[in-house]
Amino acid sequence: MHNLLWLKSAGCGGDSISLLNLDQPDLYTAFKMLDIKVVWFPSLSFESDKDVHEILNKIINGEEKLDFLMVEGAVCDEDENKTNYVTFCGHPMKHWIIELAKRASFTIAVGTCASFGGIMTTGSDNIKWMGLQYLMKKHGGILGVDYSSSSGFPVINIAGCPAHPDWIIETLNFITKGKLTVDNLDKYQRPDLFYSKLAHHACPRNEYYEFKASAEEYGQQGCLFENLGCKATQCESDCNERLWLGRTGSCTRGGFPCISCTSPVFPDGFLPFFETQKIEDIPTTLPLDVPKAWYVGISGMAKLACPKRLAVNAVSFKKIDVENEKEE
Amino acid sequence: MNKTITIGSFSRIEGDLEIKVELENGKITKAYTSGTMFRGFERILKGRDPMDSLVFTCRVCGLCGLSHSAASSSALKEAYKAEMPPNAYYVKNILLAIENIANHLTQIYMFFMVDFLNKKYKDISDYDIIAKRYTPFTGESQKKVIYARKKLLEIMGIIGGKWPNSLVMQPGGVTKTLSLSEIVSCYGILSEIREFLENTLLGCPMESWLENRSFSDIEKWMDDEKNAKSDLGMFINFGTKTGLSEIGAGSEKLLSCGAYEEPDGTFWLKSGLYDGSWLPFEQIKIEEHIAYSWYEGYDGGIHPSKGITIPNTRKENAYSWSKSPRYNNEVIEMGPLARMLVGNNPLASDIFKKNGSSVFTRQLMRIHETIMLAGKIKDWLDNIDTESPFYIKHNKLKDCSGIGLIEAARGMLGHWISVVDNRIFNYQIITPTTWNFSPRDSAGNPGILEKSLTNLEIEDPENPIEMYHVIRSFDPCMACTVHSVRGTKNDASFHLTI
Description:
heterodimer; A: alpha/beta; Cytochrome-c3 Hydrogenase, Chain A, domain 2; 5-stranded parallel beta sheet; two-stranded antiparallel sheet; 27% helix; 14% strand; elongated; B: alpha+beta; 3-stranded antiparallel beta sheet; 18 strands; 16% strand
């Protein structure tokens, strides 16, 4: 039996909601399958108020073990005697996270806010929002550079806004099966199983991408990279292979640009969201693993080689049949 | 005997909420509501590209983010003078309906019914059935609803790509161009949802339930054993035994800004103010007060388009970081009950005229609306013409302003944007929970929840389950109460002894 506690810090609750969307199997079956006992989960549990306080104290006193400490939302580095921007059971959330993390076998940040600070870092207010072990790309966070949980792991970051439910449950699955090692975490402590690909992989618009046949406005079939701000070639995730909501969709399949929500510098590292910035017609947001000179050369060639079928359909919202052009 | 109860760290609501009440001889004499989390989206948005509001506001709330997308895209549509093709109206309505049904199902099963497991009700007959069905994580109906809910959201995946935080809604329409085969998939998913609603929630065809036009019709409906044994039947049965129709009276005035706009500008659920009869809704009558909120800068109420948000953590008598929105200076309730009454739904009107508003009425209308919506989605799908566009390109205006008003699951959601020199100059959001859970206004009138809790009898102050029912009947979404700030510890702890 593995005990799991979920805490909501400053956030929208979207990661809890995303977890409820778990498919193959559904969430309750998954908990059963992984032999997970939910000690407390804010959206679902019966207990409120004093009962929750008691649960937390039992863990801190060592009366109840804690296998998985899951946190969603950004944490505020605040002095309890001065401010209380995000409080829980009478104390700042920071207090609970630090105390509970000492007891946890695994401490897991769910979502980009808990991982890196996310959207909360964009305010101009002088409030110190951060993730559990990072503030954007800077190692440290609320728990500090040296933190590791009792299993020897640093904080495991399941980034994403929201995190895909599979990423959360599969991480728990690999841990309970003893198959996750510290080496499986990437440089931002994300499990490389989910974050070593690009959201661009398996995008159905890839043929358009190859020939630089680009959509000029929403609703059209072409690639969203060149004009409409798509960051899928920079976004480390397997979104378009894995797909969302019962494997039915992804951002680019929904027709809107990827905004790279799994990144430590999300969201403001990816401005503007809906336009592509260019220098002399070359996007400044080139794919992560393609050298610029090569990109310029290849894309020029690709445009020249673009079949009429793609050129025509890229800027059309509905499919237009074009006869194959044969080589003359 | 006087006593103060403070409840915080709520489970089964979205966001952070603290309620303080004063009890005299087991009866609540005064109630105070406050949020305990600061995120400050309006301040984040100031100075940004207006289009950024689409990315940021859907992240206000994980449960109803698409409603924020709808309000935000609608405010930008007005500001930029954009136009939408008919398909976009249908698709936006479908997506909003899916989000609202998902919210309602979550509230009904995972948030509300669970309170019937309270130890106070252990000796009521059928408690064993309640426990068997609604225990979190393991209850029979809980397992069914978590499956149905995720199945329903597959329509969101097909159209919206992902959820929460889809960017499919834009000022000029929707980014998704649907194919015929995708529409067929949506029909398929809808019929699975119908099966869940009919077999588990209702015990009868959706149409048979919708034929109920009065409370006596419902009594007759309950005579059928299959209906009485359904989850709705259990709610009616247990809700009656636990006295839910006697508690939680809200306002006599309820409001809806109109829900599900059609291409011709009409609404499927019409807009208006209900106070026994129908009056037209005029958004200019909305004002926000800050008399008991930790803000300064003005007295009385001001319209959100001119909204001012200057925190003052040392303000005397203030006890909330939520402002107090009022309509024509009056305290207004909103949500599914309001939409049904304003829309002149016969069942809602009959029950309201007999019993007034109550936990029971509010909850029953949430279920009723769920069924109506699940039926209506098919019409919008039927209307989509895959040979026509879903999006029309628009210009960005340098200086402009716009209003986006929509009906989210919990009631009216408003976004007010003003743009100066291509940057957001002011962005104000008023969420339904800000209306329902507001503190006292300039005239000292309590907000709806505060009013609903007043005079409530609490059998056991150590187990104030009656309060939980009232609070949850509004389905509070505190993550949405975006004005919420909490100041220094000393300022925020609020003591009032009488």
